[in-house]
Amino acid sequence: MRHAVVAIFLAALALAACSGSNDAAEAERDGVSASAPVNGTAATNGNGRVRPDQVLVDMFRWWNDAYNEDDGFTAENFARYYTEDAVMLINGNRRGTGPAELAAHFRNIKANSEEVEIMLPFLESFNSGDRTFTAHYVRSIRGGPEQWEHIMGYAVIRDGRIALINFVGVPADAP
Questions:
Q1: CATH architecture for the domain at 2-172
Q2: Contact assessment for residue 35 and residue 160, using Cβ atoms and an 8 Å cutoff
Q3: Of 66, 43, 64, the residue nearest 53 (C-alpha)
Q4: Mind listing the pLDDT tens digit for each residue in 86-120?
Q5: Confidence of residue 50 (pLDDT cuts 50, 70, 90)
Q6: 35 touches 158 (CB < 8 A)
Q7: DSSP code at position 173
Q8: For 11-27, what is the mean pLDDT?
Q9: Would strands 161-172 and 82-90 be described as parallel, antiparallel, or unpaired?
Q10: Is 14 exposed, middle or buried (0-12, 13-18, 19+ CB in 10 A)?
Q11: CA 51 to chain centre
């Protein structure tokens, strides 16, 4: 099973790279992937460097809690986890840039769904430099039966916050 997940993960990353969208290339060119020193907002390893995997896990835990709060998705809350110029790409499409747009995007998702949960722990994850690659599920209910999505991709961490999320999602059966 693990090999199948890894194969799907790598195929999805290749698909995202070939999606024809220039958003990922634009985000990279705009300096989103640059490494930077730690600002103390995230867990660090023994060398004082940000642990990219922990930044993403902490944000997902917060996101799951914020979904259930009336005023959880605010620009101020997103700014705790995302840089001012953060870009979110899902299936090659830009969903928002910066905390204000991301907050508005997720308020819209909340308004059009009964439940959404990012499933933790990750199915698979690994770090490479300032990037965390992950495979995980999202469970949701949107005006009908429960739906599952298998999400794969990576986040770039800069100054202890997320500067880029580039994920590909496909419908999936419940795990």
A1: Roll (3.10)
A2: no
A3: 43
A4: 999 999 999 999 999 999 999 999 999 999 999 99
A5: low
A6: yes
A7: -
A8: 40
A9: parallel
A10: exposed
A11: 15
Residue with tokens 């023994």: 46
C-alpha distance from residue 124 to each of 18, 81, 94, 152 (Å): 23, 21, 24, 9
Reading the block at residue 37, the tokens are 């020193």
**Residue matched to tokens 């896990």:** 57
40 phi-psi bin (left φ>0, alpha ψ -120 to 50, beta other): left
Rg (CA), the chain: 16
Distance CA 123, CA 6 (A): 10
Q: What are the extents of the domains in the chain?
A: 2-172
What are the start-end ranges of the E strands in the chain? 82-90, 93-97, 115-118, 124-128, 131-141, 146-158, 161-172
47 — pLDDT class (breaks 50, 70, 90): low
pLDDT at 85 over 90: yes
Residue 97 identity (one-letter amino acid): T
Please report, in angstroms and rounded to a whole number, the separation of the first and last CA atoms in the chain. 12
CA distances from 93 to 37, 111, 120 (A): 29, 21, 24
In Å, the largest CA–CA distance within the chain is 48
